[in-house]
Amino acid sequence: MAHEVKTQPCPECGGLMRYEKHDDVLEYQGHKRTIKTLGWWCTKCGEAILTGDPLVRHERAFLQLKAEVDGVLGPKEVARVREGLGLSQRTAGELLGGGPRGFQKYESGKQAVSTAMSHLLRLLAKDPSRLGDLAYSAEQLNEIYDKTEGYCACCGKKLAFTNHGLGGGTNAKGRWEVAHRRAGSKGGGDRLPNLWALCVECNRDMSTADATRVVHREGKTPVRGSPFLGRSRSDRDSPGSGTPVTRRAASR
Predict the structure, then answer these.
(1) Do 170 and 162 meet the contact criterion of CB atoms below 8 Å apart?
(2) Contact between 117 and 105 (Cβ < 8 Å)
(3) What is the mean pLDDT of the chain?
(4) Tens digits of per-residue pLDDT, 189-242?
């Protein structure tokens, strides 16, 4: 027995509307895409009435088409980048912008992603270390940088404050990142006393371990706050203890 198709009058022209799947043509700035959508379709004027899940899928498909035409990320790509950064939807919204529910709207297709947000996500996808630029306020970065007077707490290399978070995608001198003195796996936290500045190379070498190299500055003790503070001179100058760094004493 054939399934009976639901019908009703069209509110626009009075013609017959049928509840069925129909070719749904999406159009944005001259670009078209056809999908199958379940809804009420008028056989006379072509008017459509969509509700519930079919309406959500229609809107999501339109936003995907719009994203492709505008050259921005679509819902699926936004979710992929966010998950790759290890952020929840709420944290991503609070850290990157959009509010606590912003990424839920982006990924569900309820709201289009702006060009600026799309550029930011693409940048972070290429170099996740840049996320560190957003994790600390300027005041916190200044305090972390000043702890070691603008030098890497591990090898003693001079750092450039403005080159924080540049990662491995550039050859700029003085690139640095915020690192943990004691790794989270060893009980360290994200409070300022446990944070210090390391050059990109040292931070990459140490991974999740604590610092294993020493600052050797004209025979002086390691920089204030180094875990090696208090070791004997012979211990600090032993082979493999780090790269010697020549540095003039700061004028007072």
Answers:
(1) no
(2) no
(3) 77
(4) 778 888 888 888 887 776 534 443 434 333 334 444 454 344 333 333 332 333
Domains and CATH numbers, the chain: 7-70 (3.10.20.860), 75-126 (1.10.260.40), 133-244 (no CATH)
Helix (H) or strand (E) holding 98: none
CA angle 61, 67, 71 (to 5 degrees): 155
Record the pTM: 0.49
Instruction: Tell me the residue length of the chain.
Output: 252
Q: Quick check: 146 and 224 in contact, CB under 8 A?
A: no
Q: Tokens representing 159?
A: 């750092």
Strands 7-9 and 16-28: antiparallel
- Cβ-contact 155, 202 below 8 angstroms: yes
What is the DSSP secondary structure assignment for residue 48, as one 8-state letter?
E
pLDDT digits (tens, 9 = 90+) for 56-89: 899 888 988 988 898 899 888 999 999 998 888 9
Alpha-carbon gap, residue 23 to 36, rounded angstroms: 5
Residue 22 CB contacts under 8 Å (≥ 6 apart), including other chains: 36, 37, 38, 39, 41, 48
Joined tokens for residue 25: 């043509």
